[in-house]
Amino acid sequence: MYKSIIQQQHHDILFYVSMWFSIGILFNGFGSVNSEANSRRIAYVEQCFGASGQPLQVTGRVLVGEGVLTKLCRKKPKPRQFFLFNDIIVYGNILINKKKYNQQHIIPLEVVKLENVDDQANLRNGWKIISPSKSFVVFAATATEKSQWMSHINKCVSDLLLKNIEGTNDSSGEDSSDDEEGDGAADIAKNDPATQFHTYSDN
């Protein structure tokens, strides 16, 4: 009976919550911001969390995308606002959609791992976000959204870890950025069909 209630609640949430995801092409190299618009977006996220949230403006930090995911909580699935940065995941409760959030949580991406969750009845398109401090299951509205979220998170994690390794091993002081074939999260946005994302505009 409990499982049936959870499934129905999840179905209702997915019916009323429209899942969307935004990707901004904001930098030439990973973590190298070239747009003031990125700073304004991060400032707006800080504003939405208000005094209850932590400052998010950090040199080199890029707001990659955002959207609503259904988080499997102790009692029932609930919609949560998620923000994907190039180095952290931030999420919180939705008080007023796109205007006000609380209960901010921040997870460093360098310690994040993802695990697929099989579909079960109405509990579909889910995956587990695993970190040493906190692990939980989230669900997207569609299989496509799930794939996009997971690929973007994995890409940010792998690029962040690669950057850390290169920073540790680089003792020559030479700039090897021109040798890189990829360009971080920007590559993800370019490889996805334009119709699947709302691209941030710097205008």
Automatic annotation (TrEMBL):
<dbReference type="InterPro" id="IPR037871">
    <property type="entry name" value="PH_Phafin"/>
</dbReference>
<protein>
    <recommendedName>
        <fullName>PH domain-containing protein</fullName>
    </recommendedName>
</protein>
<dbReference type="InterPro" id="IPR011993">
    <property type="entry name" value="PH-like_dom_sf"/>
</dbReference>
<feature type="region of interest" description="Disordered">
    <location>
        <begin position="168"/>
        <end position="203"/>
    </location>
</feature>
<feature type="transmembrane region" description="Helical">
    <location>
        <begin position="12"/>
        <end position="31"/>
    </location>
</feature>
<keyword id="KW-0812">Transmembrane</keyword>
<feature type="domain" description="PH">
    <location>
        <begin position="62"/>
        <end position="158"/>
    </location>
</feature>
<feature type="compositionally biased region" description="Acidic residues">
    <location>
        <begin position="172"/>
        <end position="184"/>
    </location>
</feature>
<keyword id="KW-1133">Transmembrane helix</keyword>
<feature type="compositionally biased region" description="Polar residues">
    <location>
        <begin position="193"/>
        <end position="203"/>
    </location>
</feature>
<dbReference type="InterPro" id="IPR051765">
    <property type="entry name" value="PH_domain-containing_F"/>
</dbReference>
<keyword id="KW-0472">Membrane</keyword>
<dbReference type="InterPro" id="IPR055251">
    <property type="entry name" value="SOS1_NGEF_PH"/>
</dbReference>
<dbReference type="InterPro" id="IPR001849">
    <property type="entry name" value="PH_domain"/>
</dbReference>
<dbReference type="Pfam" id="PF22697">
    <property type="entry name" value="SOS1_NGEF_PH"/>
</dbReference>
